[in-house]
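new request in #modeling-help
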Amino acid sequence: MRRLLVVALAALVFPAAASAHATLTKTQPQYGTRVEQSPRVVRLDFDQTVDALPNAIKVYTADGKLLSGPTHTTTGGRVMVAPVSRLARGGYTVRWQAISADGHVVSGVFTFGVRQKAPSASDAFGAGGPTTEEHVVRWLYFVALALLAGGLGFRLLIVRRPFAPAAQRRFYQLVGVGVIGALEVGILAFLLRAEDALQLPFVDFLYGDLSPLAKTRFGTAFVAMTLGYALVAALVFLAWLTEREQLLWPAFLLALGFASGLSLSGHSAADAGSSWLSELADWLHLAAASLWVGGLVQLAFVVWPLEPELRRRAFLRFSKLATLLIVVLLAAGTYLSILRLPHLSDLWTQRYGHVLLVKLGLVSLALLWGAAHHFLVRPRLEHGAPLFAGLPRSLAGESAVGMAILLAAAVLVDSKPPPQPVQKQLDVAARQR
Amino acid sequence: MQPPAEHVHWMFATGFLLLGLLLLARAVVGEEVWRRRTWRAYLWPSLLFGLGVLMWPVMVFFTNSTIHLVAHGMWAQTMMVGGAAELGLLRGKLHNRAWQLAVPLALAVSGASLLIHEQNGWLFARAAFLHHIMGWTALVGAIFPLVAIVRPRSRVWGSGLALTLVVLAVFLYADRDVAPIFGHLSPLAGEPHR
């Protein structure tokens, strides 16, 4: 943060001293493409003149073998070219650096495939794996989605009438935090993924070309989700401003719909065994979890402290919805676990399995907690018994377990599932061809 | 298929010009006359908010550098927050007067972002010159809405923000992707294309 501040201030105070930087305008092969024949050279076109060090363009195989020769510039210094040895069928990573005439370094990475699909830029050779920061950011993203989609769902499906002013304010604050979080954390997640792929020092990263990343599945999801949640932010704001509750419906449906971006860009879309069914299951899993956790937060922090007359009705209604959500959550989760863990022993032999076990432990705790609410508290409330004094604390506790499940889910999403049996891998390779 | 950056700049120039003209009209006729029609009061903050929403596609589709992406995201958010705060105050949904600081802050942060994300010198090319001058215009222009908070009836301070936006629009209309400025174009900048 301090580094960012120093760089920002320096650039603001001495803008003219900051150096000119070239922008990559064209590559050959084009990034992210499949070529049928091995290229003889890798060529990069810039909008300005650049200097090239001998190893300015490096072409790597998937296992890191360097196949490019010394780089030189042509066309008045606007084009860098490096010869490459004959490339066999496979995925290749190009890492490049160019020095603008006044010394500023611009860099980037892209991939291409020879007679097969290009690897994703985030799977480029030399890309780092997910870091703790990425786990935390992914978790914050899930929390933001839960506050947004779960909050809107609770309001529209459970409460179904305007809140009292104080509860209304709290409701919009929580949903507002959710939608702003989805936008901000989404940007941060994209930049962290780009940093992993580019593997550049901080200042160079500021000028790193993100275009190849934007063309990956993850990048496409980032584009769609950012635009979608910007629209949701506008709708939520207008609903608050004009007090038109009906605007919350499109906001809710868009919030749930655009959450599918995660399902369409993650394991369920890209790994062996993935299909439209796995993508759908992943989205249902995420949507059900968001509605459950976000609904609990609304119940514990909006209805209970600020809408006493609504407590009993909201609790009973949410209890019914939660039962349905848990059925969807468990069904989709079980299907996805079977898909991603080819052997039961993967649960205790693979890291992915370990994280899944932690998540299952937390889910069991949440289910027990929910069952206590459903089977012990709900019948009493239905018969008009007075509200149990410890219930708000109990609801807050269940929400906290829900948040912990989202953290485990974040680590799980960033972890690599165990390798699939050979036939499944062949199926995926055939699809890629 | 992306439009050239200059086309996007011109589209936003149109938005800022409209915004500036609305504010200028308000400053000329005075706040009381301007608010005789309720809808009129909502025009400029709604436009500002809408411009913020429209900036998001620019952020996600122009990703040629990290700093570019961050700067466009900053403009999207500052415009949305500035417009939203004014709408909230108008509608009586926000009561704290501190929200009046949103527009001057939005202008100041936007100006700083313009200066930070332009890394070439003033005379590198026309686009670089315009980024510098627009950055400083926005930073200095932020003083007008700031003073207008404490002197709400002053036409000078009231029209200052309007004129700042008109000037920013003129600068944006003058933008070309690769073009000389005062006859100067760095050989590093590329071939001028008109």
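bot summary: Chain A is about 60% helix and 10% strand.
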